[in-house]
Design goal:
Elements (H helix, E strand, L loop, with lengths): L1 H4 L28 E10 L5 E10 L10 E10 L6 H7 L1 E2 L3 E5 L3 H15 L13 E5 L14 H9 L18 E2 L2 E2 L2 E10 L2 E12 L13 H7 L26 E8 L5 H17 L9 E8 L22 H21 L3 E2 L5 E2 L4 H10 L9
Parallel strand pairs: 5-6, 11-12
Antiparallel strand pairs: 1-2, 2-5, 3-4, 3-12, 7-8, 9-10, 10-11, 13-14
Length: 382
């Protein structure tokens, strides 16, 4: 974990972003939220490349077993999966952890979360063991032996049990291990913003599993980076575009990937307000060059830890920010989403996987050169 945390982030390269980040510039800046990973990277005797994993987000940390939060989802383009969405839409309650993995491992992770929750304590207030876990996915089959079904229940348990606050790893970790975005190696990224709403301080945090986009559309801090890096083949590995070893970019043409975005805040928001917040994540995604292509699964979730009494059994008092005061929360979501995706891109490292397929990480020096050309490179703080 220490080595993973040492990976440079976008700001370390001098890339400018608007807004004020929290202490760790991560989803875990939202008090009480913890994040855990389990990463699987191995090559089997039969020649299969395992490049996958699981990410676990616990909105109330260890209290997430029984402590619920208000939540909502938004599907920008629905070629993807997020289990538990119907009950979340109906009740406005997010119960238990949020899990993210690869497309073909949703089922095993879903079942594992139920088993994990059963082991944590007694039945719910109704006397029944009942759970509809929330599990999202993106497809890592270019690098990972996705049909080898290598994700097991114990891996989900490990991700859940390792969840922590503080700084968290990015890039080739957890569910983001085998992911590609804008035809560069990508994966998991996070960012946060500290804001003031009606004279009160709040935090908005975002975590993404980024696996979307085409090279030419990539924009970073407003700069058309993808157009410049695509034009110079020196930025690709030898053999780019050929079959077998050395293939540098994702094969399918067009925006056929996906992205999961999870937004958390301690601002007291109600479910209908969180639905509005989830939609704003799409604007941060668009800043980086996504057009939500036909084959892309772009599904977003937002939750608020602001009301401890979200799951009450009798009449209670619930606090909420006025709709008239939501603009700072909306803007923070857009800003943190934009930066979280670029953090995933910058942190990722070149990876070779199934059948010699290779996804090449973005060249930091080349990126800085383009940013400097457009006068968008800031001095790096040491």
């Amino acid at each position: 974990m220490a080595a993973e945390l040492a990976t440079p982030r976008a700001r370390d390269l001098g890339i400018p972003f608007d807004g004020t980040p929290g202490q760790w510039n991560a989803l875990t800046d939202v008090a009480g939220v913890t994040v855990g990973y389990h990463t699987l990277q191995a090559d089997t005797a039969s020649g299969a490349a395992i490049r996958t994993g699981i990410t676990a987000i616990l909105p109330r940390g260890k209290d997430s077993v029984q402590g619920v939060v208000y939540g909502a989802m938004f599907s920008l383009n629905g070629n993807g999966e997020f289990t538990g969405s119907h009950w979340l839409d109906e009740s406005g309650l997010l119960e238990g952890p949020v899990m993210i993995t690869n497309t073909h491992s949703v089922g095993v992770v879903h079942d594992a979360v139920i088993a994990w929750r059963v082991k944590q304590g007694g039945a719910d207030d109704s006397g029944y063991w009942w759970s509809l876990p929330v599990v999202g996915e993106t497809w890592d089959g270019w690098l990972n032996d996705i049909n080898g079904f290598h994700v097991k229940p114990e891996h989900a348990f490990a991700a859940l049990d390792s969840a922590q606050s503080g700084p968290i790893a990015e890039g080739n970790v957890g569910g983001g291990t085998g992911m590609i975005c804008h035809q560069f190696k990508c994966g998991t990224g996070t960012a946060s913003r500290v804001i003031t709403v009606a004279d009160k301080p709040y935090t908005v945090g975002v975590l993404v599993q980024a696996n979307y986009g085409v090279r030419e559309e990539l924009r970073i801090a407003g700069v058309p980076v993808g157009k410049h890096l695509t034009a110079d083949k020196a930025y690709d590995e030898p053999g780019a575009g050929e079959s077998g070893a050395g293939t540098a970019v994702n094969k399918p043409a067009g925006d056929t990937g996906s992205i999961i975005i999870v937004v958390g805040t301690d601002a007291p928001l109600l479910p209908h307000q969180l639905a509005r917040l989830a939609k704003r994540a799409a604007l941060g995604l668009a800043r980086n060059g996504s057009y939500a292509g036909n084959g892309s699964g772009d599904v977003f979730l937002a939750f608020s830890t602001g009301n401890k009494a979200a799951n009450h059994n009798s009449t209670t008092t619930i606090e909420s920010v006025s709709n008239n005061d939501l603009d700072p929360v909306f803007l923070a979501t857009v800003q943190a989403t934009e930066e979280a995706i670029i953090n995933a891109l910058v942190a990722a490292k070149t990876m070779t996987g199934m059948d010699g397929h290779k996804a090449v990480a973005i060249d930091h020096a080349a990126l800085q050169k383009v940013m400097k050309k457009f006068n968008r490179l800031q001095p790096v703080k040491r």
